[in-house]
Amino acid sequence: MKEFGLKFIIFNVGIVLFISIVSLVYKHNINSLTIDDSVNTLVLGDSHTQAGINDSLINHTLNISQSSEHFLYSYNVLRLLLKNNPQIEKIILGVSFHSLSKSYDKYLHSEDKTEFMFLRYFSILEIESIIDINRIPIKQGFDIFKGMVESVFSSSTIYGYSFVGYFYNSKKSSLNDSTVNAAIQRHYYAESGGEQDFSTYQIKYLKKIAELCQKRNIKLFILNTPVHDRYYRKIPQKFISNYYSTIQQFEEQIDFIDLHSMKFEKECYGDGDHLNAIGAKEFSNVLNEKINDKVQL
Question: Mean pLDDT throughout 31-35?
Answer without folding.
Answer: 77
